[in-house]
Amino acid sequence: MFDGFTVDDVPVGDATLHVRVGGDAGGEPLVLLHGHPRTGATWHRVAPLLASRGFRVVVPDLRGYGRSIAPAPRPDHSQASKRAMAEDVLALMRSLGHETFRLVGHDRGSYAAFRLAMDHPEAVRSVALLDCLPIVEHLDRITPEFATEWFHWFFFAQPETPERVITADPDAWYGGDPDAMGPENFAERREAVHRPEVVRAMLEDYRAGLTIDRADEEADRAAGRRLQPPLLVLWSLRDDLERLFGDPLTIWRDWADDVRGHGIESGHHVAEEAPDALADALIGFFRGVM
């Protein structure tokens, strides 16, 4: 995976990010943020396509995920907040010499990307969010169907029990197909979820989502803050986002003025299932907006 990419562990304040970097050293910097329960390896089919088109591609593991290191859990879950993850990425990019960059987030990584673009619009030139709505928009639209299909949001928020359930048999909980994911990507994900500290950190991500992250979004909405960088919204047509919530673009237009996007024929893990279509959409967007 990631032929020609360098691999490093970069301290960023109270966390350390495991990061892959590749592509044109003088190219425009582009950050890819993964979702749960993946690592940066989920981008192994997309990152080389972007690198081959002249981008300088930066692929970290989110704090606590994969081989990145997060602080111990705090009572308010702030160590797993999307603001903390966003600050990690900003510090990482500055350490690599990039004051501005393009940004992509999928699933949980999309919340970190959203927070980074909201808090630091001067750094984010444009942002793509994949399979994502703001957390408060999900919670405002709770239905029995949502609660059933997305039950993990609320199960993961419970204290201690999810850790016991998942660590008892991580392979049974997370599953996965090595052929579909790519054998090395699967092996990296599998190694990560067999470490209890990684499972704990991933669960803390969800606990933060329903508490401190929700509060941050509610404060944004109450203050009328909007996403300033141009926004691309992509969603997987064989997943359930559009079926449960309707047109994602309509919802995102309550949060940003420059919104565009479309669905992609894929299941949820679009970077693994439809890498060419995803790369084409990202390149078209990033090349088309200044």
From TrEMBL:
Keyword field contains Hydrolase: yes
Keywords assigned: Hydrolase
InterPro entries for the chain: AB_hydrolase_1, AB_hydrolase_fold, Epox_hydrolase-like
Transmembrane segments: none
Domain AB hydrolase-1: 29-240
Gene3D superfamilies: alpha/beta hydrolase
SUPFAM superfamilies: alpha/beta-Hydrolases
GO molecular-function terms, A-Z: hydrolase activity
Signal peptide (UniProt feature, chain positions): none
Superkingdom of origin: Bacteria
Name of the molecule in the record: Alpha/beta hydrolase
The species this protein was found in: Leifsonia williamsii
